[in-house]
Every structure is written in structure tokens, then in C-alpha cells.
Write the C-alpha cells for this entry.
Amino acid sequence: MPNWCENRVSFSGPAEDLEKLKKLIGTDEQPISFQKIKPMPQALDMASGSSILGYEVVYGDVVKVLGYPWVKAAGITTREELIRHLEKERPEYLEAAEQYKSNIDRYGFSDWYGWRIANWGTKWDVGANDIQVVDDSSGYLSLEFYTAWSPPEGIYDALLELIDENNWMCMPLGSMTNPVCSSPVICRKHQPRQGDHRPDGSGLPDVQPKET
């Protein structure tokens, strides 16, 4: 269960530019989607966990895998023996290994988790139920939403690039009141949900480091 960051993104500008912006950052189901703003390649939508073991066996640190208790108990001592074991017991691990290898070669990451942390700044896309439209009046748009563990720094950067690329007149608005915030033009408020407090019980914002 992660701690949650509460984010606010506000835009001000001509209504025509804001309407174009809405179409590029949102979907029919929700007003903002990280996947819409900075799409993750579909090939990276793979499990991040034990299934990567096949990649470690074929291409990675097989010495580490050979040290696993279950491997030792099976009397397996070489890469070749381990591959034969997986071919018989878990062939899907070896199939996944080829896709992991392709992903690393092409995108620099084996699966969704590492790519999202590096490109979005958080591991999950924002959910429709976690978004609140604070204001959607003429010439102004303000959204609040939650992200897991950390703010979506990569998404904020992508939003600025999107505005610049389209030569829109709309501008992100915000005030720099929290030292955790690093962008001078987009307001980001980080507040834990109820029950997420520091160990001393102070209840102050507790933005955790990104998971690795």
C-alpha cells in the first residue's frame, strides 16, 4: 500500500487552446491520462516480478540464480542445466526472457515498472476515480489527482513540452509553497491521505523516495 501524493495542475489561457489541450491529455473516461500524455510502449506491459527469472538465467546474472535454495535443492549447478529445467517446468519464463531482452535493447527497460518510474516519475497511471476537476471555466482548467509515492515529474515536463510544441498561449499556473516541488510553473501539492503519517505521528506530508 503506497503513500499517496496529492497533485494539482492548473492552466490558464484562451478557451480555444485549452480545448485542444484537453483533447491531447485526456480521454472519454477521464480528463487526464499519463498514457495519453506520454505513452508507454505496449511491449513493456509485462509482469514485473518472478517471471524475469528467465531473463536472468539466459542473459543475466546466472550465478545469483544458481545460489537460490530451490536451485541448489534440485542439484542444478550450470546455466545449461537451469535452462533445461525451465524448458520442462516453466517454459513461459524462457519465452518472456526473449521479450525482456528485446525491450531492454529497444527501450532500455525490461517491463512497465522501470520505464514508468523513469518517464512518468510514478509507477501507476492516474485512475478516473482519483481525479477531481476543481475548475473548468472559460479560460481556466484546474485538476487534482493522486499518484503513488511520488509526483509525476516526467508528466509535468511532458505537459510543458506539449504546450511549447503547439505554440499554445495557455500557461501552467501555480505557487511554489512546498520545497518538494521543483518546477517553477506547475503547482504540485503533496499531502498524504489519511493514515499516512511520519513515524513520529506528526502528520506532515510524507513523500517517500521512488521505489527502485
Summary: The chain has two domains: 4-38+120-173, 43-113. Confidence is low (pLDDT under 50) at residues 175-212. DSSP finds nine helices and four strands in the chain. The longest strand covers residues 4-12.
